[in-house]
Amino acid sequence: MRVDPAFWWVGMKNPKLQLLVHGPSIGNSTATLAAYPGVTLDGVQKVESANYLVINLTIGPDAKPGQLKLEFKGSKKLTYAYALRARSTDPQRTQGLTQADFIYMLMPDRFSNGDPKNDVVKGTRVNHIARDSMYARHGGDIRGIQNHFAYFKQLGVTAIWPTPLVENDMPKASYHGYAVTDGYRIDPRYGTNAEYAQFVKAAHADGLKVVQDIVLNHWGSYHYLFLDKPAADWFHQFPSFTRSNYNAFALNDPYGSKRDYTLFNDGWFDTTMPDVNQGNPLVATYLIQNFLWWVESTGLDGYRIDTYPYSEPQFLMAWGKAIAEEFPRLTLFGEAWEGTEAEQAFFAQNILPPVNGFKSNLPGVLDFQIAFAISDALKTENGDLSKLYHALQADWLYVDATRNVLFLDNHDMSRFYSVIGEDFNKFKTSIAWLLTLRGTPQLYYGTEVLMKNFSNPDGKVREDFPGGFVGDKVNYFSSRPGQAGEAFDYVSKLATYRKAHPVLSSGKLMQFIPQDGVYTYFRYSDTECVMVIANNTKDEKTVDGTRFAERTDGFSSGVEVVSGAAISDLKTLRVPAHTAWVVELRR
């Protein structure tokens, strides 16, 4: 017999608890709760499948930690001891993230193998590793990530975001983590639940935060709740396989069709990723409790929500409200891979009126509009800077755009260094923007050592980090020769400066309309001012600095913070071709 959640806590703000009991013909049983002070049995609910039973409890404010005794009477009598635990009182747990953080995103299977003993796990559908195959598992794990905390800190990183670590027991391409087969279990090829909790604790002790990557919209087709469904309506089903149209515009199109809306929300993300029906109250509660459980179990600091727009809009509001009420310090940001600033802002807290009853309560999103704008500016000669300006100008749509997460690329996109033609000066410009614009910056693993390749297939951009595996000929954790070292040092120096100068994270932002291929903005406070000026052309540009007088008045000179070069004249700035300066202004 299995019970989800596996255990719970006293003292939760929401006293209601839904237990999903799974076992052969358990639904034909009657269930009772032995007397326990502060806990009441609200009811037992049968579902379509006889292999499930739903038990609804209230955990009152006076309930103490201990063991609940559940009794089941059917063809035979069963007793189950259910643990109620005390909540953690550690103030360092669930710290949340701010703009002062710098997130490092990585794919655990491809980052570092710290425990070869879990490379092959008996009983899993993929029980081998093959590093020469882009779709096979390569052996990276939680221990491998933890072994390199010093590397993250040297780079200037303050938070780690691994792609999903929960079980993905799929027969193909299970390494990526987005086809969950058990939402309550760390994949045994990465480690155990206890090891993950220890990983979060160790990260906190080392001054690092942890973001957990989660999927609300779909599960893997080998999820135990799909293989043995509690009821048919736990998933969206069609007469034949029906894929999502991947078009979120259908959600708020005032002239849109119901068919397009339904296809987007209810269609499957892929053939092996059944779409979960969050309109079913039992499913919605199951999901909400699952993600409350991980936070209280581990003390993690944030959730990155995969494919955020694809979930039921009403469920998203209920989920976000429940998470925020229980863990107000937890950071939430979602993937909203959309085509316009307005469509992206629709999925974050915004100033827009409700549409079809949906008003997003998600604090922030991954800022694809900034990513697209940086890419468009740098991937061609004399690229257009106006998109970057306009993407920031559209911040008026958000309640607080500083809660967005900035990035250059990720595991679904071509690596940025390849996109910009392996131009090192353009790389430095992109890093300068990433680490000085508003929002929380995020770097995809290997960008700092110029890892490259194009997606399609995606596996090309998910290669192993050099040095993370036994037998690697190059080890970038310990030695970074040539331009890889220059790249690492540039990121590290600027990230370190950013950490020491809050003006780059919490200061105000003022941008000037790009002119003649030069884009200039300032981060400033009452005590500090940093000018970021980027020449995006193949020629040196002489810039009239008096145009920026409202920010430079009172300052006579500056220093470029990475190179240390002095800038003696703020009124006439000669900026070399394809160069970005981050200039600390001096009085």
Automatic annotation (TrEMBL):
<dbReference type="Pfam" id="PF09087">
    <property type="entry name" value="Cyc-maltodext_N"/>
</dbReference>
<dbReference type="InterPro" id="IPR006047">
    <property type="entry name" value="GH13_cat_dom"/>
</dbReference>
<dbReference type="InterPro" id="IPR015171">
    <property type="entry name" value="Cyc-maltodext_N"/>
</dbReference>
<protein>
    <submittedName>
        <fullName>Glycoside hydrolase family 13 protein</fullName>
    </submittedName>
</protein>
<keyword id="KW-0326">Glycosidase</keyword>
<keyword id="KW-0378">Hydrolase</keyword>
<feature type="domain" description="Glycosyl hydrolase family 13 catalytic">
    <location>
        <begin position="105"/>
        <end position="498"/>
    </location>
</feature>
<dbReference type="InterPro" id="IPR017853">
    <property type="entry name" value="GH"/>
</dbReference>
<dbReference type="InterPro" id="IPR013780">
    <property type="entry name" value="Glyco_hydro_b"/>
</dbReference>
<dbReference type="Pfam" id="PF10438">
    <property type="entry name" value="Cyc-maltodext_C"/>
</dbReference>
<dbReference type="InterPro" id="IPR014756">
    <property type="entry name" value="Ig_E-set"/>
</dbReference>
<dbReference type="GO" id="GO:0016787">
    <property type="term" value="F:hydrolase activity"/>
</dbReference>
<dbReference type="Pfam" id="PF00128">
    <property type="entry name" value="Alpha-amylase"/>
</dbReference>
<dbReference type="InterPro" id="IPR019492">
    <property type="entry name" value="Cyclo-malto-dextrinase_C"/>
</dbReference>
<dbReference type="InterPro" id="IPR013783">
    <property type="entry name" value="Ig-like_fold"/>
</dbReference>
